[in-house]
Design brief:
This protein is an alpha/beta fold. The chain is built from ten helices and ten strands. Helix 6 packs parallel to helix 7. The structure holds adenosine-5'-triphosphate and magnesium ion.
């Protein structure tokens, strides 16, 4: 897995008697968009929670980032080391501008930074400008999130994860949920641009159209187990995927 920027080895998460993630070994390729799919309750969010250090008492196994075993590190250390994530529920500060939302995120990684930011919001303007440029958001930088379309708001959410220090891998949990077809397509093109710029990402989404269009490689979880992995073409034609996921209407959360 030398070309993997991030991989897990036998990652397992248990909540009491429930094994939510069961011995998952998978890789995120460098400079690639990797998809993680599976029905509701398959363990996708739990997988990201464990990778990003939020389940220290429930998780076991290995998480390797840039060749280093980072399992057991606390979330803010992992964020500092380059693991950035978005949350299934998008939370933006609605009363401050898009630029300020990014400023705040860029300062959030340390407690000192958060305190400093509270009293004297500075932000890393160089990095914020770079991300605004990258996401083509300069024209909305001075607007309030509530004035934006849902698709633009989601992109601000991605921007908040991107400005956080030296992002090596971006983990996106259903970033396109709630978007209409056109917005999803625009959002997917935005993600693809970021990957073409060299970012590595893991994308969780129920929208198979989006996942099959934008991802380079896709893994599928069912009841916490990795049941298949492949290119979009392989996944599209995989009987296990068809029966477990594509065959029925699937979740749409
Ligand atoms: N903190 C927790 N305590 C106990 N059980 C949990 C906890 N978090 C998740 N679970 C359980 O773990 C399993 C996996 O949940 P998870 O949220 O990871 O699924 P998911 O694949 O992200 O689903 P969705 O597509 O609906 O977001 C589910 O059975 C869920 O009820
Ligand atoms: Mg989830």
């Amino acid at each position: 897995m030398s070309d993997a920027v991030l991989y897990t080895d036998n990652l397992t998460v248990q909540f009491g008697g429930l094994t939510a993630v069961n011995g998952v070994t998978l890789a995120c390729g460098r400079g690639q968009l990797t998809g993680l799919i599976g029905p509701n309750g398959a363990g996708k969010t739990t997988f990201i929670d464990a990778v990003t250090g939020f389940l220290p008492n429930n998780a076991s196994g290995r998480v390797v980032l840039e060749g280093q075993d980072v399992f057991g590190r606390v979330p803010h250390r992992l964020a500092h080391d380059g693991l950035s994530r978005t949350w299934q529920t998008l939370e933006l500060f609605d009363d401050i501008t898009v630029r300020s939302n990014l400023d705040v995120a860029s300062q959030r990684l340390t407690f000192a930074g958060a305190v400093r930011d509270f009293f004297r919001p500075t932000g890393d303007h160089g990095r914020v400008d770079e991300v605004l440029e990258l996401l083509d958001m300069h024209d909305i930088a001075d607007r309030l999130p509530r004035e934006l379309s849902q698709g633009q708001r989601k992109m601000v959410g991605v921007g908040r994860a991107l400005v956080a220090s030296s992002t090596k891998v971006l983990l996106l949990d259903e970033p396109a949920a709630g978007l209409d077809k056109a917005e999803t397509q625009g959002f997917g093109e935005g993600l693809r641009r970021l990957v073409d710029e060299g970012y590595s990402m893991l994308l969780i989404d129920h929208d198979m159209g989006l996942v099959l269009t934008v991802c380079d490689y896709i893994h599928m979880l069912v009841f916490g187990e990795l049941i298949t992995s492949g290119t979009p073409d392989e996944i599209r034609n995989d009987p296990q995927v068809i029966s477990a996921y594509l065959g029925h209407s699937g979740g749409a959360s």
